[in-house]
Amino acid sequence: MKKAVYYFLASLIALSVMLMTLLLMPLPKAPLVGVGGNFIIREINIVDVVNGRIIEDATVKIEHGRIASIQTGSALVIPPDYVVIEAEGHYLAPGLWDMHTHGIKLSPQLHHPLFIRYGVTSVRDMSGCMEREDSYWACPQDRRKWENSSLAGESISPRYPLQSSYQTNGGNEVPAGYSDFFRLNSPENAGNMINFYSGQGVDFIKTYADLSAKQFAELAEASREGNFSLAGHKPMVVPLADALAADMTSIEHGRLFMFECYKEIEAFREEENPLSLYTPQKIRDIVNQQDQQQCSEHMHRMAGSETYWVPTLTTIKMSAMARDENYRNDKRLNTIPWLVRALLWEPDINRAANSGVDEQGRFVHGDYFEMASQQVGTAKAAGVKILAGTDNIDTYVFTGSSLHDELSMLVDAGFSPLQALQAATIDAAVFAGRDSDLGSVEVGKKADLIFLRDNPLLDISSSLDLAGVMFNGQYFDASALMALEQYAIDMAKSVRVNLHYLMGLLMSPLMRVQLAD
User: Fold this and answer.
1) Domain 37-93+443-477 CATH assignment equals 2.130.10.10
2) What residue ranges of the chain are covered by domains with CATH 2.30.40.10?
3) Which residues contact 314 (CB under 8 A, 6 or more apart)?
4) Distances (CA, A) of 216 to 333, 337, 399, 451
5) Distance between CA atoms of 184 and 221, rounded to whole angstroms?
6) End-to-end CA distance of the chain
7) CB within 8 A of 98, min separation 6: which ones?
8) pLDDT tens, position by position, 427-465
9) Which of 5, 22, 271, 309 shows its CA 20 to 30 Å from the CA of 170?
10) Strands 250-252 and 308-310: what pairing?
11) Comma-separated ranges of CATH 3.20.20.140 domains in the chain
12) CA of residue 346 relative to chain centroid, distance
């Protein structure tokens, strides 16, 4: 008996030592596979996203990470020591923006290489931290560190031009022991929240669905006084007109007009907990009872505001496709840690597949997705300002590549290929106040560029056929892009990375509260 206890304790100690060793060893960094220097790009067709045209057979000079000149119709003398890229008639477009992402502590291993691999050179992160460092979520200082390290040529990371707070959701998101002002129980709390996040260097407060009308109004007032912005979910109980009056800079996700155009929306809002009633039959009622006149009025009101919409159609497509085996077996699953697939993604997609049936036995999610997509196209035609975002880390949303899925869905919804491309380039840069530097292929701007084999203005799916990416003064050819993807695949199957992910998840008070909700 004593011998058995001894062997058990020895095994336990050995396992603990092994796990601690795995956790303490630094994770490998993404390979620095870009070629640096100044460049001459020859025989390239420039995709002019501002004017909607192709500038054919151009020569582009890149110096110190910026576009120094664009010439057509004449030979350019090649300065010594410049790297010449023979584009062979490919197409040069601005680097893409994903306007709804979520950074975590493991983003340098799991996300950043895939962003660059798929030509996403700037992102708007929609998450953050409260008053303590978090083991799971990336905090503003993490994102600034990553970007600065990338700009110094020490690592791989997209630009993070805007910083978000952690989501504010009426108080139910706040762990025990955190400052009470995060619960927004008074106007003073709202002011304290603004002051706190201002000290963190945050640009906007991320709003969420469960905020009360009173909390939202107090937060909007404090934001105005503190010269702060609101962006995120439109709270369920807050009418769209009130959200627009509060000058929300953006509203997220494709359900916006599905709710706002629902004939019984006012009665639904008056329920004690509306979202608890969001059953398959309620979804069917929402699909069947859309008020088109009301919808038109909402869309035109939003078109006249400065508020943008980020539909993230990728997120609601998951439920619509939950019963499709080809969708469920997406080859890109190899970029997702097996722990994430087992603990989070599989239960989520199974829930969508098994619980999406109305009282007549019909699967509701496909009809919902189809109507929500139509509303995105209708809103665009009405003049609503729309940006492309994915909500990466959401179930079956793949970092980097899903932005190209989103662009294709925007075109399916009624956008022209140019409009879809603008939603992920110049329009995003204008939103972020960075259009003097980014968002289009113009002299003087930073050379965040993607090399495409075919014309995306004819077929938006060409955005996915990348021959190369230029970012931060470095050129990543096709083999370099594949090396970044292979690194992300290796990290996703790494025991060490999955162990780090699990420990980060379990040690995060913010995630423990979120997962318990």
Assistant:
1) no
2) 37-93+443-477
3) 390, 391, 394, 396, 397, 402, 405, 406, 409
4) 38, 37, 31, 44
5) 13
6) 44
7) 115, 120, 122, 123, 124, 388, 389, 390, 392, 400, 403, 424
8) 999 999 999 999 999 999 999 999 999 999 999 999 999
9) 309
10) parallel
11) 96-437+494-516
12) 21
Residue 469 structure tokens: 């990416």
Q: Residue 195 — φ and ψ, nearest 5°?
A: -60, -40
Nearby residues of 281 by Cβ (< 8 Å), 6 or more positions away: 358, 359
- Domain 96-437+494-516 grouped into CATH 1.10.10.10: no
What is the pTM assigned to this prediction?
Answer: 0.94
Report the distance separating Cα 296 and Cα 335, nearest Å: 41
Report the distance separating Cα 175 and Cα 311, nearest Å. Answer: 29
Radius of gyration of the chain from its Cα atoms, rounded to whole angstroms: 24
Q: Are 488 and 113 in contact (CB under 8 A)?
A: yes
- pLDDT tens profile 357-395: 999 999 999 999 999 999 999 999 999 999 999 999 999
Beta-carbon contacts of residue 235 (< 8 Å; ≥ 6 apart): 207, 208, 209, 210, 211, 212, 213, 215, 216, 243
Region of poorest pLDDT, from 276-290, 317-331, 382-396: 276-290
Give the DSSP H or E segment for 241. helix 240-245
Question: Which letter, b or e, does each residue of 311-323 get, where b requires 16 or more Cβ atoms within 10 Å of its Cβ?
Answer: bbbbbbbbbbbbb
CA distance 37 to 309: 38
**460, two tokens:** 């938006």
Angle at 284 between CA 410 and CA 206, to 5 degrees: 55
Q: Which position has the token pair 């996403």?
A: 120
How far lies 33's CA from each of 30, 67, 89, 471, in Å? 9, 21, 24, 12
Distance CA 433, CA 22 (A): 43
